[in-house]
Amino acid sequence: MISSFCLFIFVLGVLCGYKIRLPKKVKALEGSCVFITCTFDIDQQYKDDLTDSAKRMWFKAGGSTAVFDSSSSNTGLLKGKIFGTATQKNCTTRFDDVDQSHRGSYYFRIETNGKLKHSYTEPTYSQVQIGVLGSPPKPTLSVFKDQQKVMKKEVEVIEGSSVSLRCSTKIFCPSRPPSLTWSSSLIESVTGQQYQSQTELISDLNFTVSHRHHRVTFTCTAAHQLQKQITKQESRLLSVQYAPKNTSVRINPAGLVLEGRSVTLSCSSDANPAVNYTWYRDTERPLNPVQTGPNLTINNTDPTHSGRYYCTVENKHGTQNSSVLLDVQCEYYE
Q1: How, if at all, do strands 104-111 and 117-119 pair?
Q2: What are the residue boundaries of the Ig-like domain, all occurrences included (predicted)?
Q3: Strand-pair partners of 149
Q4: Which of 53, 97, 232, 329 has its CA 20 to 30 A from that of 167?
Q5: pLDDT of 333
Q6: Side-chain half-sphere of 197: how many Cα atoms within 13 Å?
């Protein structure tokens, strides 16, 4: 009984000594590189065997030949670079020029001139699965208003509010990161503030909304430099609500208004949502009967129709008015 107990403790110690920390899955972009963060531990009984001359190797699951060997990093199926040193227990590796044939699961092996020779194959989570994408995905574009994330393609905002657009894209190969650029349907240039981590590139665009941004599309473009540059885009449309602006009234037909003719006063305004119109004459009282709508037509004019006419426009965000002087002249006959 005692010997069995001791054997159990010994086996458990050996299993616990060998550990590896690496992601279960990584995604690579065809034609680019893939970066695998990795560290390992060995059983302490072999610590004196571990020197910087140790081979750090990668094998494809089910294969018996190393696809990458730190002692000859450009001769295997996978070419690239392994970082740090063996004594640092670093197995972080970059594989270059990844293609579809490189899909699959891989495990790490440490091999020295002494007794330390170990493949990190068990349990299965000791392996990393490499997936290969044929083309880069679109960037992720999020809109935040009042610090709340909005998922719609068309985002409704109010003039004067603060809006943040965040564009992000995955960095498949840290040595060849993509770039992010902003554009809009406005003539003015758009520049965002960028942040970069090991795995993600982020660009933030922050601004105060004005009526000029109504129906403006903001586009984020991610450019990936592979054998040739590949770009992917994502866009958001802003719908801006704002109070009436640039309200004006004009007389049609323009020029002298003669008695007996018809005349139309036309009111226009820039607003969102659409405005309601109310017409006034000389005083603050509406016309009787009340006249609404953008056009006020007076048929068979006479001098009593002369005066100043006011158009007041209103939506839920505000009001504005404009006026025009109507002067009806008598038509004299000789």
Answers
A1: antiparallel
A2: 139-231, 244-327
A3: 144
A4: 97
A5: 56
A6: 6
- Domains of the chain: which residue ranges? 18-133, 140-241, 243-329
Q: Identify the bridge partners of residue 312 per DSSP, sorted by sequence position.
A: 278, 321
CA distance 268 to 153: 30
44's tokens = 């302490």
Architecture of the domain delimited by 18-133 = Sandwich (2.60)
Mind listing the pLDDT tens digit for each residue in 223-250?
998 888 999 999 999 999 999 999 999 9
**How much of the chain is helix, strand and coil, in % rounded to 5?**
10, 50, 40
Give the CATH fold of the 140-241 domain: Immunoglobulin-like (2.60.40)
3 state SS of 172: coil
CA 18, CA 122: separation in Å to the nearest integer? 10
Residues of the chain with pLDDT under 50: 1-15
Quickly name the fold that domain 243-329 has: Immunoglobulin-like (2.60.40)
Closest CA to 69 of 174, 80, 44, 185: 80
Judge whether 18-133 and 140-241 match in fold.
yes
